[in-house]
Amino acid sequence: xxxxxxxxGATGFIGGxxxxxxxxxxxxxxxxxxxxxxxxxxxxARRPLDPPAGPGTETVPGDLRDPDSLRRACEGVDVLIHCAxxxxxxxxxxxxxxxxxxRVLVDAAVRAGVTRIVSLSTASVHGRGPFRAAAPGxxxxxxxxxTSRTRAAGERYVLDAGGTVLRPHLVYxxxxxxxxxxxxxxxxxxxxxxxxxxxxxSMIDVDSLAGALLGAALFPGTRPGPCYVNHPEPVPVAELLxxxxxxxxxxxxxxxxxxxxAEARALLADLPFAQHHLAMLAGDHWFADDRPWREWGCDxxxxxxxxxxxxxxxxxxxxxxx
Length: 322
Known about the structure:
Low-confidence stretches: 25-35
CATH topology of the domain at 4-172 and 204-231 and 287-296: Rossmann fold
Number of strands: 15
CATH superfamily of the domain at 4-172 and 204-231 and 287-296: NAD(P)-binding Rossmann-like Domain
Shape: globular
Helix content: 25-40%
Strand order of the largest sheet: 3-2-1-4-5-7-12
CATH class of the domain at 4-172 and 204-231 and 287-296: Alpha Beta
Number of helices: 11
Largest sheet: 7 strands, parallel
Distance between the termini: 50 Å
Mean pLDDT: 91
CATH architecture of the domain at 4-172 and 204-231 and 287-296: 3-Layer(aba) Sandwich
């Protein structure tokens, strides 16, 4: 019998992709060095899955704010892939889920004899850049929001237990309701296209990220500690903004001349979300780490320019956020 895997966040954007890959007939078909036997997959979910889990997969009800449900979910598990998190401005919820919930989950996993813990985090635990070809272990933790502060706190429990933490920067793809919708919202608030300058950004599509999470969980030689997981080639900001403009095409309102970052900051001075996005776009956020692709036998895919087109139909069906 293959490894018994518990996945949290199975109804989420990223966790749902990990769950789908883990439930594949081979258990880990996208990883070159995975276990030979099919895995048994257990999904922790706060609500029923739609569609329901397939053969070889069970769903157990649970919540990171319910310690008893976490202890039950960890019973008999070999590998934990922790993808659940609370994202947003509610600091109490973020603390309860990302910090305290992760502490209780890791404690339950250790007590249950789990042999490997892999946790999804974010490069935002380092705060705002610029970061250029930053390698693991070279940047201090400097989180600037409730979400990133509590996720940094949750990382510590995983690392103290000898686990592996994956820190992507910008994640895109079908199901994304944060990154590209936020870029479109920013551009829609401007009178013309944004000239973002020459900054470079680490990005990864959701399927490649899910493959890396599963690869880290199943590869016997996965090293403990933090790891950046992004496509090896950083994305010029112009490519990211061009994709946003493409999503605005055909919507009401003519586009005027391009504006630069400084002009955009002045025009949108009263919009905190816009200032947040502009600060990110203005500087490099490039994290260099090839371990997911070199050590775990995972495929980073062809990169942003080649893959974003596959996801445009999903994004076009979303309303422009107000």
